[in-house]
Specification:
Elements: E1 2-7, H1 11-26, E2 30-31, E3 40-45, H2 50-69, E4 74-79, H3 80-84, H4 86-92, E5 98-101, H5 108-113, E6 133-137, E7 139-140, H6 151-155, E8 159-160, H7 163-175, E9 180-184, E10 192-193, E11 196-197, H8 198-206, E12 213-217, H9 226-234, E13 241-243, H10 251-256, H11 263-276, E14 281-288, H12 295-308, E15 312-317, H13 335-358, E16 364-373, E17 376-381, E18 386-390, E19 399-407, E20 411-417
Helix pairs in contact: 12-13
This protein binds 5'-deoxyadenosine and iron/sulfur cluster (SF4).
Length: about 425
């Protein structure tokens, strides 16, 4: 049996998809990259923005046709949308075989037994596919209730995972040849399992000899401690990249978003991090068009982006989500204004990121090679910037030096140094 998994949304979903793929492989199924060849398709959904839900429904529409041609096709819907809109999915897409919410991912194995024929239940060797990094979920859910965000409503309250389990998973990943561990949570800074906080968890993981590189995401400025800044500064296994979502540069909007910090507090934290860790790359998220966002509020965000000089900025158009507090707010910003503000900020932030990357020109950077395709290697430096270079060697999983010759806003390229 061949299976295909479409992952929409965040790294949490990527991680859950990996877990589902592992289970299906244990059942003797083989993963395919061609959806048309699959007998079992899983759509792992996201509900953080309307566009993500739209993407899932479009794919499900195409799968309806595929099922008409191949009536044996099994279609499963998992993830956040499956969690809160199971009824709607089942009504709109009657041909879907099962809907399994994000919180029920642990029962995926049980669900599979209903669809995968018993005789294929053999433990096949997994395909020889060298993975370089591994996502490890350290906490589930979120208790922050940012007023625009559906996550706490769908994934439930924040729960930290037992560090003993995390350490076990890290050890296993390293034994499988993994070079980079990426710790995941909606707000890893508030990790706490029986008194062990996030900094202490990082210390425990970095003490494992086999661990080469550690990344983590995502952060919340209200919980980013001095102790953590110190640890990142001194611990050379921790990559020098922090994704620190700002969301808005306007204090009025930040308050309405329930972010629990002011722009000034964010800026103080940002500068503290930059001073303590000079080679750090800080990236961020911004939402444009939150209800009531005035020209002045947008200007504040634009100015913040100029003042802070992020290494990379993800800019999202506000999307009202069911169940959220913000969905009930008045002051809807017209779409044409949102689009204009989006373009203005995007163009400016791209220039900023490119300028920041310019400092790497003629510099030699250390990168971990993630894959080599048709003679082009795709790698990443500690600062999480993608680096491309030509090579004929099989370098996947190796740490090499590259002299940078060209930079773009979100990536750079160079020449392998030997
Ligand atoms: N509309 C637009 N962007 C959103 N995000 C979260 N919820 C929404 C929404 N309703 C963005 C935030 C968050 C990122 C993962 O997605 O910027 O940091
Ligand atoms: Fe959503 Fe805020 Fe939680 Fe992030 S911290 S998942 S934006 S509620």
């Amino acid at each position: 049996m061949k299976f295909y998994i479409e992952t929409i949304g965040c790294q949490m979903n990527v991680n859950d998809s990996e877990k589902m793929a592992e289970i299906l492989s244990e059942y003797g199924c083989i993963q395919t990259n061609d959806i048309l060849l699959a007998d079992f398709v899983i759509v792992n959904t996201c509900s953080v923005r309307f566009s993500a839900e739209h993407k899932a429904y479009s794919l499900l529409g195409r799968l309806k046709e595929q099922k008409e041609i191949n009536p044996n096709l099994i279609i499963g819907v998992t993830g956040c949308m499956a969690q809160y809109a199971a009824k709607e999915i089942k009504t709109r897409c009657k041909y879907v075989d099962f809907v399994l919410g994000a919180k029920d991912i642990n029962s995926f194995s049980q669900t599979v037994t209903k669809y995968v024929p018993k005789e294929t239940e053999v433990n096949e060797n997994k395909q020889e596919n060298r993975e370089v990094f591994k996502y490890i979920t350290i906490m589930r859910g979120c208790s922050n209730f940012c007023s625009y965000c559906i996550v706490p409503h769908v994934r439930g309250p924040e729960v930290s995972i037992d560090y003993n389990e995390i350490i076990k998973e890290v050890n296993k990943a390293c034994d499988d040849g993994i070079k980079e561990i990426i710790l995941l949570g909606q707000n890893v800074n508030s990790y706490n399992y029986s008194g062990v906080n996030f900094t202490q968890l990082l210390q425990k993981i970095s003490q494992i000899d086999k661990v080469t590189r550690i990344r983590f995401m995502t952060n919340h400025p209200k919980d980013f401690s001095d102790e953590l800044i110190e640890e990142i500064a001194i611990n050379n296994k921790i990559c020098k990249h922090i994704h620190l979502p700002l969301q808005s540069g306007s204090n009025n909007i930040l308050k309405a978003m329930n972010r629990k910090y002011t722009y000034e507090q964010y800026k103080t934290l940002y500068e503290k991090i930059k001073n303590k860790i000079p080679d750090i790359n800080i990236t961020s998220d911004i939402i444009i068009g939150f209800p009531g966002e005035t020209d002045q509020d947008f200007q504040d965000t634009f100015n913040a982006s100029r003042q802070l000089q992020f290494g990379g900025l993800f800019i999202f158009k506000y999307s009202p989500r069911p169940k959220t507090f913000a969905a009930k707010l008045k002051g809807n910003v017209p779409l044409d204004i949102i689009k204009k503000r989006h373009v203005l900020l995007l163009e400016d932030s791209n220039i900023i990121s490119k300028n920041i990357n310019e400092k790497y020109i003629n510099e030699t950077v250390e990168v971990l090679v993630e894959k080599v395709n048709n003679g082009v290697a795709e790698a990443r430096n500690s600062q999480n910037i993608k680096v491309f270079f030509d090579t004929k060697e099989k370098l996947t999983g190796e740490i090499v030096n590259v002299k940078i010759t060209k930079v773009l806003p979100n990536s750079m390229s160079g020449i392998l140094q030997r």
